[in-house]
Design goal:
2 copies of one chain form a homodimer. By secondary structure, chain A is α/β, with parallel strands linked by helices. Chain A is built from 12 helices and 8 strands. The longest helix of chain A is centred in the last third of the chain and has 23 residues.
Chain lengths: 308, 308
């Protein structure tokens, strides 16, 4: 059953891999090469789908210095159209809606094949960020321009730790058409469980079916990558930080931690009966970290019950 | 190797059970009966030691209404002396130091057999609580009155979550003579791991040996017991609360959770090489909850490598 049918049916147990498009400054020839190398690296994983992120400069969200400088990246829609047409699975294209004029987004939405593409619409990173369009307007635009195009949203367990209302935000987004949610990178298992649990029981109380929650995992091979994760808003528990700081091989330690966290979260979701997907990304562009992420996806694929 | 030798050697993998003495209003005849029933219930567990709590009215610590009314209990030293002389293992007697005049505490300390008794000195529950003696004074008194009597202290992972300095407090207490630490009931595995991790790496940085950390576990059979745990300052994660609230059999669900949390924490301590002990208590005086606590101790005993 392909990813789109699976999400339509509210079923989980699928595996995604998320990519950030190459920097905008990359030579076109090199972009093609990157796309080819990436596709060749990911094809053996037997993924159910690919995610393409839409990177916005989130400097307004966080006053601290960004550990890695912001580099504008290619538009994920262009990257897909120009270089990944041969990719065999459905692709989930993120749209940071604040970056686009309504007509620009409408044109893109209208042109998408709902049997091949899904989209995740992402609101502005902070309420003060200058934004050309609100999330609600973008959601309404999708409904109007291409209602068959499946819509997803972002879910942030860390926000649930602070405000305890992320499950209610998800249910509001479901009412606005979302059929799945994707988290940012998960390091805090307890926060993720609190979030899943509240979502599960709220769905039950309302007599609604939960939609698939896609949990994102990644490896972290250095203290600089860890600092970047924190800058992005990821809660990394102290004991995990300590372990990475003192490990002989932080990347391997991080790989093991991510595997353990994902395994426990998978078991927890199954216990509750909440459909889930797994998404793996590489936060860093270092080759060893990318390769470890691919290994992580491979190991997690083995845990999924894809016949469900 | 008995508990006292084990603690002296800085070795873990031991099992304790903690009791709250009967209410002071209990008829003497009934106190004897309770002691006999309790000893008979615990003897088959093959415990390494018993803990006797010293209950203070902690109303000053928490302005919220206490879910169960405060009932003064028998002095744990009296309970031991009068009713548990036949108990076969060492006993750890708590002393809420603020309750005692210095001479009163000195007399007790002097009279204890260091081959049979250890003590945990507990400071006032809040800095504003009226107190007849400070923790530092009581520690100095122990050193003076009976230096052979092994001393322990309390450890509070929840405090570490808020202030991130519980590991430093422990090291200061070690310098004041503490040879082991006992936590309050652990429900937040992540907080416990953060605390153990920081303690481990700080010991390493200072070239000091870690002393055994005794983690306390309990079952929680009702929302009222859960409210009481929270009143006592225990962080109970939302997902655990949800699970207990919705379980057909909350006591059984809680038993499974405690077992899982303890198992994971045991594995984590072993990975770090931090010596640990396990303590089981029954927070509630309901018979079914006491029996489930005994079952929990039995299940955890099977996991300990007591030959270490």
């Amino acid at each position: 059953m392909n990813l789109i049918r699976r999400i339509e049916a509210g079923r989980g147990e699928f595996l995604l891999f998320a990519l950030t498009p190459p920097r905008r400054s990359t030579e076109p020839e090199q972009v093609r090469e990157i796309a080819e190398v990436t596709a060749a690296r990911l094809r053996p994983l037997g993924l159910d789908g690919l995610i393409l992120y839409d990177i916005a400069d989130e400097a307004e969200r966080n006053p601290d210095e960004r550990p890695f400088p912001f580099m504008p990246t290619l538009d994920p829609a262009d990257y897909l159209a120009d270089h990944l047409t041969a990719w065999p699975t459905p692709v989930i294209v993120y749209r940071a809606v604040g970056k686009y004029a309504p007509e620009e987004l409408r044109t893109w939405l209208t042109g998408q094949d709902p049997e091949r593409v899904m989209t995740v619409l992402v609101g502005a990173a902070s309420s003060t960020a200058s934004s050309r369009m609100s999330l609600a307007d973008a959601q309404a635009l999708r409904q109007d321009a291409n209602p068959a195009l499946r819509l997803g949203g972002v879910a942030i367990p860390e926000r649930h730790s602070r405000r305890e209302d992320e499950h209610l935000r998800l249910l509001a987004k479901q009412e606005a058409g979302c059929r799945f949610f994707v988290t940012q990178v998960v390091y805090d298992l307890n926060a993720a469980k609190n979030f899943v649990s509240d979502y599960h029981y709220e769905c039950r109380a309302r007599g609604m079916s939960p939609v698939p929650l896609v949990f994102t995992f990644s490896v972290c091979g250095s203290m600089k990558t860890l600092a970047f994760l924190r800058w992005l808003g990821v809660d990394v528990p102290r004991w995990i930080e300590n372990e990475l700081r003192h490990a002989d091989d932080p990347l391997e330690a991080s790989y093991q931690q991510a595997l353990t966290t994902a395994t426990e979260l998978i078991a927890y979701c199954r216990t509750l009966g909440v459909p889930f997907g797994i998404n793996v990304e590489s936060v860093s562009i270092r080759r060893v970290e990318i390769e470890a992420s691919v290994r992580l996806a491979e190991a997690l694929r083995a845990q999924l019950r894809r016949k469900c």
